[in-house]
Amino acid sequence: MHQTLHLMQRYGFPALRRRQLETLQVNLGYRCNQTCLHCHVNAGPQRTEMMSRETVADVLAFLEVSGVRQLDLTGGAPELNAHFRSLVMRAREIGVHVIDRCNLTILEEPGQEGLAEFLAHQQVEITASLPCYLEDNVDRQRGAGVFKRSIAALQRLNALGYGMEDGRLTLNLVYNPQGAVLPPDQAGLEIDYKAELGKRFGVRFTRLYTLANMPIQRFGSTLVSNGTFNAYMALLKDAHRDGNLEQVMCRSLLSVDWQGYVYDCDFNQMLNLPLVLEGRQRPQLSDLIGRDLERNPIAVRDHCYGCTAGNGSSCGGALAG
Fold it and tell me: Is residue 320 one of the residues assigned to a domain?
């Protein structure tokens, strides 16, 4: 696989500093039941990296003392971690809102019986990957049969109350472009998603998030192989908007990898760009207990243009209307 970090200093992304920490995003491991072309984590069934019970305990200890009240769980498929359910239950007990970055098909995997019901009972917000409302496009990006299995999972979640107008159980969908292009307007695409999925499958959801493909890991390597890496980077740089700098997720989010090391975002995690912390070359979450990160410098490279290009892109979708 082609590495891209050394290509990330041509355009000079603007300097940024952190604000008050609001969200702890935790990668529970890189193992996944799918292998998606756009995956910036390079996750798949053969990956073995998984967060240990001891590191999960560090996550909970940090939540208890930091005052952070949003836990964003990701992977791979975070649900494949043996400690996923106990982490969710304990976080909910201490009053933390939990988000599960779910690929949908995991709900139907052997060994995951009752997972959908568990998420509903714990009132976990689900942010689910569905890169298109057309079967061929989804299967091309995520694997044969994924679309039908995803629709079945969405229907199951709807039956449990997810995505309904009462707002009790939030179900968000995530769109990624098929290639080296920027996402379309989020609001307009959400209307199309709701119309098509509702009419054809009776599926309902809360919000659609549009995310740009990051030029790192699997997608970045594909760009290098195709000779389109520089063109894509130029596209991102040319579409940069300074106004998006105020809302980028790294200002208020902290990313934790499966070993407990910390980063400004999960893209930096994949590039091995650790959080900048005085006295620590590669800080872990336990090093941050009692520390105030506000005004801390953020480690930036040119891949950050993926978050500020066009309408912007973050874990919560577009940054501008």
Answer: no
pLDDT in tens, 225-265: 999 999 999 999 999 999 999 999 999 999 999 999 999 99
For residue 269, how far is the Cα from the chain centroid? Answer: 12
Please give the pLDDT value at position 105.
Answer: 93
In a domain, residue 319? The reply is no
Q: How large is the angle between the packed helices 186-201 and 146-159, nearest 10 degrees?
A: 80
Q: Strand 262-263 and strand 253-256: pairing?
A: antiparallel
User: What is the pTM for the complete model shown?
Assistant: 0.94
pLDDT (0 to 100) of residue 258: 96
Specify the pairing of strand 171-175 against strand 207-210: parallel
> Which residue would you say has higher pLDDT here, 303 or 37?
303
Of 254, 256, 247, the C-alpha closest to 307 is: 247
pLDDT tens, residue by residue, 22-43: 999 999 999 998 766 656 666 7
Q: Which pLDDT score is estimated for 23? A: 97
In which domain, by residue range, is 45 found? 5-308
Around Cβ 77, how many Cβ atoms within 10 Å?
Answer: 26
The CA distances from residue 286 to 51, 259, 260, 280, in Å, are 15, 11, 8, 12
- The CATH number of whichever domain residue 113 belongs to comes to 3.20.20.70
Domain count, the chain: 1
Q: Is residue 39 part of a domain?
A: yes
Residue 167 is assigned to a structural domain of this protein:
yes
CA angle 280/249/86 to nearest 5° reads 75
Instruction: Say if CB 245 and CB 319 are below 8 A apart.
Output: no
> What is the token pair recorded at 168?
């009790």
